[in-house]
Each structure stands twice: as structure tokens, then as C-alpha cells.
């Protein structure tokens, strides 16, 4: 297979139309839209980066602006993250089945849960010499088409050397992942992520729903399929199978689950008896 690079000047509104036309050609395997090249003294320069080099921080809006410069039906890959986005990016950017997801800045309750799990799981894993617990953002590269950033992940000590590459990315399935879901996360996104975790052999998967005050812990069975190992809603304790002996009360992660009381029943209205009013 040969790779050709062409510099084409085209109206920006026609980019998606040209992209669709080229990708539909049977002998074309991949089409990539690059930044606009500039000419100096009759020579074509290398395409400029999409981001501002040496910029210390980027907002969610700035990262979305980069993604918006590409066709909406672009099939994103792991290489694209390194090629088009700034290094050491703090904004959570993921690829799920070739689709790009740019996550909004998390809310306080989300970060509270991450901090509590990082502290409790991390201390437990360290004391027991089980492995390492990591928080997001940290890329987990399952393959070219799927690069996730779980909110919390755990890797056993005996697997760490192979699971983490020289660039600091996770290149093998973690032993445990935690996803904290908000109403903004679509059902399709949740299902796709679960499918990938299951198919790549993530042994334990925590799903946390702060609004529902619910936690579900699933583990792989002998057939390689997830089944519920532990769960709690509003009250109760959830346990880990991979971090054997680790357990946590749901109220430690979601304090409102403990303080939120059921509304008191309304007192029945008393009917006024006929003729009970005094006449003057």
C-alpha cells in the first residue's frame, strides 16, 4: 500500500463533501484532513499544528474547536490524539469505537468520589502490596480504535512493567476500572465502554451513578462475561474481588445517600363537619 499527500485548496464548507467522496472510493483505505499549508517563496511548508505550542493549559472549548476542524464522520485513532492534540492534555479526551469524546469539566461530587476512591483504594493496595491505583486523565490504549480514560484504574504489581509503556500510557487492559457516570453520558457511550472493557478482559468494572446514589461492581465470569459481584443503592457496602478484602460503604463516596431522608408522609386533611360553624 502506498501513501500519497496532496495539498488541495478548497472552500471550507466543501471539505466534508470531498472527504465523503474520497472515502467512498473502493481503492482508498484512509483519508486524512491536514491543517492548511502555507506557501513561502514558492515552497510549501509543513502543516502548522492545530494547537498553540508551549501553551500551558487548554479549555474544553479550545479542544472542541480543534475537533470541529475535522469532518464529523472522521474515524479517530490513537495516533490522532498524539498528532493533533497538545501533549500533557488535562482535558479528558477519549476514543470509543473510532468516535471522539471530549468530556466536560467534572463537577464537585464527581471529583469527591474520585478523591475518596483514590485515597482508600490506593492506601489499601499499597499496604497489601497489590499494585498501583491511578486517577484520570491517563490514557488506556486498548487498540488503535479505542483509547479510554477511566476515572480510576488499578493494575496489579506483577503486571505493571508490561502494562505501562515508556511514554507512560497504559497499553494493556487494567485489572480494575471505575467509571463515574453523569446524566450527560449517553446510554450508547456507557454500553460501548462496557463492551470494550469486557472484550479486552478488564477483570473488574465499577459503575457509579451519583444521581441515583448507586454502585455496581461487575466481574468477569468463566465465560468472559460480566456479572454482578457486589452492588448497593443509597445504603450498604460494596466489595472488590480483585482487591481482595477491600470494601467501602456507599455513604463514604456519596454522603447525601446517608443524610437524605425519606419525605415525611403528609397528614390527612380533616374534613369539616357540616353545621359546625357558629352563626351570629
Can you offer a commentary on this structure?
- By secondary structure, the chain is α+β, with helices and mostly antiparallel strands.
- It folds into two domains: 80 residues, no CATH class; 152 residues, tt1808, chain A (Alpha-Beta Complex).
- 25% of the residues lie in helices and 22% in strands.
- The strands form five sheets. A six-stranded mixed β-sheet has the order 5-8-9-10-11-12, with helices on both faces. Strands 1-2 form a two-stranded antiparallel sheet. It has a two-stranded antiparallel ribbon with strand order 3-4.
- The chain is globular.
- The N and C termini lie far apart (104 Å).
- 20% of the residues are buried.
- The mean pLDDT is 83.
How is this fold's topology laid out?
Blueprint: H1 15-23, E1 39-40, E2 43-44, H2 60-67, H3 78-84, E3 93-96, E4 99-102, H4 108-127, E5 131-135, E6 140-143, E7 146-148, E8 152-156, H5 160-163, E9 176-180, H6 187-199, E10 204-209, E11 214-220, E12 226-233, E13 237-239, E14 247-249, H7 250-253, H8 256-259
Parallel strand pairs: 9-10
Antiparallel strand pairs: 1-2, 3-4, 5-8, 6-7, 8-9, 10-11, 11-12, 13-14
**Count of the domains:** 2
- CATH fold-type name of the largest domain: tt1808, chain A
Reading the helices and strands in chain order gives HEEHHEEHEEEEHEHEEEEEHH
Proportion in helices: 10-25%
Number of strands: 14
- Mean pLDDT across all amino acids: 83
How would you describe this structure in keywords?
globular; two-stranded antiparallel ribbon; 2 domains; 8 helices; six-stranded mixed beta sheet; alpha+beta; tt1808, chain A; 280 residues
